[in-house]
Amino acid sequence: MTRLCVLWCVLATLLAAPLYAQTPPAGVTDAHPGLPPGPGRNIVIRTCSECHPIEIVTQQHLAADAWQKLVNLMADHGAVATKSELEQITAYLAEAFPPLPGDAGASPQGSCAGCDLRTRAVTP
Ligand code: HEC
């Protein structure tokens, strides 16, 4: 009887262990594989997926100052984060999603005039 419990208890603990794991190891796929590991990642997921899918964010490739403007704009829209969290969000996004080659300085306000804001496809 005792022997049996030892076996089952150990097995149960092993099986349950992943459920209690606090954070997935860096780079491991969680619900948001599109976001590379880095400081500020969790704040971005928490803050920026509240009103729209996080993909709205991860499809952007912006220069640091454009990210800054965008994050401030979202704060104006009602994104809930402290000043220091907003700074971490900006730093993370600028690092993780810089402008694509040939798209330097892209800004949601500037470069997207006359194009669809969501897809960035230029509407004829
Ligand atoms: C309180 C709601 C809310 C939160 C929280 C929020 N947003 Fe938004 N977001 C909006 C709304 C509303 C729009 C669409 C209107 C617009 O573009 O101004 C939008 C649009 C966007 C767009 C598309 C703009 C474009 O030019 O294509 C991006 C990118 C974006 N948000 C990023 C973020 C980021 C980064 C965060 C986290 C700091 C965030 N959002 C948090 C409300 C929010």
Keywords:
single chain; 124 residues; mainly alpha; 48% helix; 0% strand; binds heme C
Query: Low-confidence parts lasting 5 or more residues at pLDDT below 50?
Result: 18-22
Which H/E pattern describes the elements? HHHHH
Distance between the amino and carboxyl termini: 77 Å
Which ligands accompany this protein?
heme C
Total number of strands: 0
Structural class: mainly alpha
Question: Care to describe what's here?
Answer:
It contains five helices and no strands. The protein has 124 residues and is an all-alpha fold. The protein has one domain. The chain is globular, with a radius of gyration of 21 Å. Mean pLDDT is 78; it is low at 18-22. Bound molecules: heme C. Heme C is lined by residues 47-48, 50-52, 56-57, 60, 70-71, 74, 77-79, 89, 108, 112, 117-118. The site of heme C has 19 residues, from helix 2, helix 3 and helix 4.
Fold blueprint:
Layout (H helix, E strand, L loop, with lengths): L1 H19 L20 H8 L6 H4 L5 H14 L5 H14 L28
Helix pairs in contact: 4-5
The protein binds heme C.
Heme C binds next to α2, α3 and α4.
Report a brief summary of the structure.
This protein has helices spanning 2-20, 41-48, 55-58, 64-77, 83-96. It is mainly α and 124 residues long.
